[in-house]
Design brief:
2 copies of one chain form a homodimer. With about 425 residues, chain A is of the alpha+beta class. Chain A is built from 10 helices and 16 strands. In chain A, helix 9 packs across helix 10. Chains A, B: Keywords: Hydrolase, Magnesium, Metal-binding, NAD.
Amino acid sequence: MPEPMPDLPEPAHHELDSMLSRKFGKEVANYFSGSPLNRVSFLRTDHPFLSLALKHPSTSFLLFNNLNPLIVSSTKLAFASFKDVEPIIGEDIYSKSEEDLIKEYNSSKYIPQLVFLGLDDRNQDGLVYKDYYKGAPYFALDITPKDPIKSAAETLISSLETKGVSFSKGRMHISLPPQEAAIYAESRHLLDWNARNPFCASCGHPTFSVNAGFKRICPPRDLASSMTNSSASPDRPPCATRTGISNLSFPRTDPTVIMAVVSADGQKILLGRQKRWPEYWYSTLAGFLEPAESVEEAVRREVWEESGIHLGRVVIHSTQPWPYPANLMIGAIGQAIPGGEEIHLGHDAELEDAKWFPTDEVREALQIGTSGLGETAGPQYKEGGLRLPPRTAIANQLMSAVVGGFLGAEPKI
Amino acid sequence: MPEPMPDLPEPAHHELDSMLSRKFGKEVANYFSGSPLNRVSFLRTDHPFLSLALKHPSTSFLLFNNLNPLIVSSTKLAFASFKDVEPIIGEDIYSKSEEDLIKEYNSSKYIPQLVFLGLDDRNQDGLVYKDYYKGAPYFALDITPKDPIKSAAETLISSLETKGVSFSKGRMHISLPPQEAAIYAESRHLLDWNARNPFCASCGHPTFSVNAGFKRICPPRDLASSMTNSSASPDRPPCATRTGISNLSFPRTDPTVIMAVVSADGQKILLGRQKRWPEYWYSTLAGFLEPAESVEEAVRREVWEESGIHLGRVVIHSTQPWPYPANLMIGAIGQAIPGGEEIHLGHDAELEDAKWFPTDEVREALQIGTSGLGETAGPQYKEGGLRLPPRTAIANQLMSAVVGGFLGAEPKI
């Protein structure tokens, strides 16, 4: 399966050190994690709460057009207010209970996707609910102009553009501070999942978004059928997702392994490259974890399949949410067994090249050769030298851990 | 979301120590991992290879009826030969290329689900392919009796039963040696995923199994439509899954966090229980990782939502595949922050109870109070004492790590 792509730009505009510092002991917090929001997931079915959250003066809406977020600049998200979005979502979509909305389900009605992201309790003027849950509510909303919201969405977009904000042009143009990146990642992952799953994989009928954007169900009745044919029953055939809890109803997150591989003597690092990458650009190997694999097994399988190298010890390093579209990157560091270091690219056709690099060369490239995929490397970089992904990519963090001596305190194999 | 259930029985019949030994350094290999098979995933589209594998004398088929595997006894899988299954799957379903099979796709034809699991290279009489890929092939096959294979499946099942093998009666009745458990886990996860996804979540049309059971695609043509109406075009409307790589086409694995929580002073362990569990039975907390969370964030959120406790340090311990239906259990150990240890069950209604247990009480219960959920505890257990899940459950391994001093070598928060 395809390798996830580390293609975020180098964040020159803000300091990553505070985020990447080892808060909570030895934990490494990667880019896209570190959200300031309390998700209060158990309140997602509580429509009186959601109704208050929707209209509270402290509430922010992150708007998306075809999965691109509204931004002030590539380093700052833009947020809208309830008044901005009211012409699109109506006065209060949470005025009825979830149960009642399911009874009235009509698949022919387009409802713009809204997701409740959580509460930011750093805001002292936020909502207070049941004396206990406090903070400024955040929502994500898809306002891609399509019928019947086309006209209202276009009006809003024009009005926003006069204020100097606009939708990002793809992910290459975002380089957000870590906490905004985490809010964007949650939004994008959920909006993409909802957009990608309009039908039930179990029975083929249209699905309906509930739980404030965190669940899609296959309703037992659909009033659309009786609209076109008044004698038709709104009842649908039985569906397996209705008779028990099905994972199909919940957001999908794909566990992915990504690993820095060191030689048996600890002096070299294995890196690979894909054909479409810029010249001299390499990164760590990666791939999807398969059914019934532990993380260590997935790491060994992927490394052998892509490079022919046999790994012994594998240690999990850190994890990174990756919302393109739905990955959990599980970062590991693995060590080749003596005699298992010969590179063979013939198993799987995924990599154009894989090579052992001396640790010192990787250390230098981490200092002068990193950048986003579409960017140029820094001023100290010399043509022909190794190029590597930026610090926002977990691949960079894994290589940094190796050159920083991550495995050094442990006995060699 | 619901908590995964540790309900495998205690494996009295075989020794887990060899599997759970820290092979490859500090790695803990949990039950359901440790497969002896090389998946050679890049050969799943290679029909000449699959055709040889299907009919090789060393080949084994693990048969399933409604997701229950064929067994000799609760401690031993039973395998069938190609001759056994030929009346059900035909002479060679891989005689045509995948491309040709997609062209001939007809959604009205039922094809029993077959999954290529991998090669067991411990078998010296196994298949040899391209001089490099060696071993005895393993397949999983769903022979649930339904038209048009009903009669052939029933004949095979009768014939197998006269040989003294039968289908397990649910998962409570399986207690396999670790390597067989891993083969079963891969089979069950893949067969369940295929059975659960007969329709395309993107467009609602029937899907087709390819890549030897590891991919489901939405074919552009379906000959079924022209069978019922000869003037109907077999062409289907466009589908987003056809215009790029979509994760919807690949098996789903749900990352799940499960965590042993220790008090700030390291002297107590937090355990919770669900209402439906036997009296005195407790386990570690668990829940699904959500979109755009790191593992540590998911652990902290779940623990706070379910118990009100605030965690500081979180360390990943090990992982466990869990094929009911599709989880990757990511095991962690977390430590409460001073002042964040008060239990509050009012956020989320998931647990009936959560309690701090002295480490010594947990240590004793790990020795005398473990069993499968449906079993009785061992002879030394005294009524009223703490009961815990068996060693096959990662929850047990996490608690064992804590009482064994996993966090001890580190500074306290």
